[in-house]
Structure prediction request, 991 residues.
Amino acid sequence: MSAPLGNYLQRRKHMKPASKWLWCCTSVAIAAALMVPAGARAQSYPSQDIRLICAFPPGSGADVLVRYFAEKLRPITNRTVIVENKAGAGGNIATEYVARAKPDGYTIYVHAATAVAANQHLFKKPPVDAAKAIQIAASINRQPFMLVVDAKSPYRTVADLTAAMKQKGDKATYATAAPTGVIMGEIYKNVTGITAVEVSYKTAPDSLNEMLGGKIDYGMHDPVFSLAQQREGRLRVLAVSTAMRLQANPDTPTMTESGVPMDLTGWWAAMLPAGTPKPVIDKVNQWFSEIVRTDETRTFLNSFGGDPFVNSPEAGQELFLKAIKDWGDFVRIAKIVPQG
Amino acid sequence: MEFDLFHNLATGFGAALSLKNVGFALIGCLLGTLIGVLPGIGPIPTIAMLLPITFGLEPLSSLIMLAGIYYGAQYGGSTTSILVNIPGEAGSIVTCLDGHQMARQGRAGAALGVAALGSFFAGCVGTIFIAAFGPPLAAIAQEFNSPDYFSLMVLGLVTAVILAHGSVIKAVGMVLVGLLFGLVGTDVNSGLTRYTFGVSDLWDGIDFLPLVIGMFGIVEVIRNLEQATLPRPQFSAKIKDLWPSMKDFRDSWRAVLRGTGLGSILGILPGGGAVLAAFASYTLEKKLAKDPSRFGRGAIEGVAGPESANNAAAQTSFIPLLTLGLPSNAIMALMMGAMIIQGIQPGSAVMTKRPDLFWGMVASMWIGNLMLLVINLPLIGLWVRLLSVPYRLLYPAILLFCVIGIYSTNTNTAQLVLCAVFAVFGYVMLRFGCEPAPLVLGFILGPLMEENLRRSLVISRGDPMVFFERPISAVLLAATVALIALIVLPQFRKTREEAFQE
Amino acid sequence: MLRVKSPQDLGAGLVFVLIGLAGLYFGSDLAFGTAARMGPGYFPILLSAMIAAVGLIVGLRGVTIDGPPIEPVQLRPIVFIIAAILIFGFLIESIGLALTAILLTVFAGYARRDVKLSETIVLGVALAAFTVVVFVYVLGQPLPAWWGR
Prediction:
């Protein structure tokens, strides 16, 4: 084995030492690399590395959640689990990527199923028909949006706020930073008849200074931000947008209880491309449900303002289709102009 | 109050100075530097890549390692900026301007040394700021409303014009073009998309990394290849050339002080504050210098100031995160994610409920800075020697790392297409005498400026006086006017002198 | 007839005017709004107009004030470097990092006039090995190392 190699190197003697060294090293590298199996198509699942697709950039709240599940999946599946960030277009880029991926269970999309549903109506030409292209494998959590006010303000209930905003008329201002918040805001205005002006922010934290400075009267924000600020004593959560109270914060009334009927529940799920074989879907469901049922995950999800939410793939898919329908109504109610 | 400060720091150092934690700081710094030094791979991709390594550790150890990775990545990025003229993040762009020129003149060691020492000094000051003034500084940052941010951005944009060492009018043009590019994407205030041509990859706007790497890194490689002979920077193995000289120290210590001050203040402001720090420091040094024409040709103040500003801002940008639980930029968001994964909810609660964690983190920042010095000063010789690798072997490696850096952050072919597009654009504009740096600043600050302008007017119901009624905004606008006067008046004097001569 | 006195200024002015006009054209369907209640088109249109104006001024300088000439363009470096980047971008998902790294190196190599193919291939393989080991195996980045994924 070494003799031909030796001859080869001798023939290369006229090369400069650096190049010869390079040759030697790369020959070894190639040999080693060829011994690594390249994407074997195995019979039993899982036999390859698993990729969790995250539709948000690294370090974001969503990324943290996806990485948590990646960590928990590793010991259960005995495979390498990588998180791949495909941010952009409000999740459409990731959704499209997953829809086009091979339905072999090695590409799992961890995202808010309700956001995927919403995008079907928020864009004039959604890249894929989610109902046909995406299959829910397992649901993960259920979380609300929250109505928040400055902790220094005198409003303790939604009724207090409504009365005060009616007084303020056109001078009332509220903050939103996400489509769900926009819709929550519109429903609130429609039902109560207040005429507050909406101010949009890119992210909820951007609105904090102005909320605390009295320029903004109330905000419709995501639970992570709202709860964190309530913990800090800066903001007060008046109500949640889900129809039922959450175990995560049982003392907070719902908007429905407070006289503004609505059910805006966001729920996260592990999703697969449509056409994935049933045994694979069930396996994924089994893994995620197992992780979600632990106390550790419950605490983790609670800190994000949500409850664990376990469903069979069929039940999950049904909820998903319902969400797609509901969001058509929401977008209409909120008079949101589809992008595109 | 004084006693508390020392007591707290003592607690922190006690926790952070365990052999184990110092070891983690060292490893973090080393890894961060090694990855961050690869061209095109700046702090954000580096931290994102190395984040998983910290997961299995205890909270304090993982945060210490993460801080080491952060500073290592930052300094690695500066090293690349100086040696190969490729910035890994916004702040490094400024370091390229004079740092690389110094490298070409054989003074790479001096540039690297001054950057390291200036950063260390800034880091020490920054740590003290956090320890002593954390909460009050955070309170000031909370006073910033939309009108104040708008005025700050306007001030920042004007500094972009001073930055350029070519024609002023072309710099203005580039800033405006950068502003326009920044508007591509979805408009926050109305939800409509602008200039996306139906391409969904552009909904969220043009990504920063492809633009910067395209216009700076790729263009740099192309231009080097156009030379008759490939670049062979003068490289001297003499130890004294690997280190800043006494003259260098004398020239730069004031820049370090000023940069530290600027960076410490600007770093606290969310959204663009830290980016501004380096640019503002460069502008300040150029304006204060006796001979501004040295800038862009290897003026050491142009490295010392911005590097110190960058590091000071890197430290103080932790303040909103640690005291309020609010990340002020993308890197802080990563840190926050790391903390949440460790089970720490960043916010004021951390200070009271887990003081060992909070003060341990503060102490670890200083240790991270020290590690940076300990690791990198000896490595300066190694980095400079890397320059002696023949360029024909170096540039494909540079290209590959840049491309990998962009792709790992967002696995989307569109990003690389964008990079190529901006490379061509940057190349053409450079041929026409227009520099890319002002465009990048316009690109970063523009959308923030517009967003805050429109939001201010919505909140004030259309009343433009809000920009002058708010004290912070009024002061910033006044400073902008003063700065514009500083730019315009010398031009008038010059044309008047020319007229006189005729 | 106007004499071109500063080709660089003229070129820059032309580009600015083009960008400004493009901005005006593609932004024309956005609502303008008023100064008090700016629509999404307010800034884009204003900026485009300003850019076009700057372009005119710079172009004017191009025909009145003397300036340095434009350095001659060399097609080889830019064409091959851009090609290298695009090849990487379009092929990475299908054939993986190892091969695209080699392809990128080879194409980038041809950006030089005095390129030696054998040397470039060796460099490419070395870089491929290095990046695959460091980025895919050690750092676990979401880059496919090989084909067929």
Remarks:
- The first helix of chain A runs from residue 2 to 11.
- The interface with chain C takes residues 19, 22-23, 25-26, 29-30, 33, 36, 38-39, 51, 80, 82-85 of chain A (CB under 8 Å).
- Chain A is about 45% helix and 20% strand.
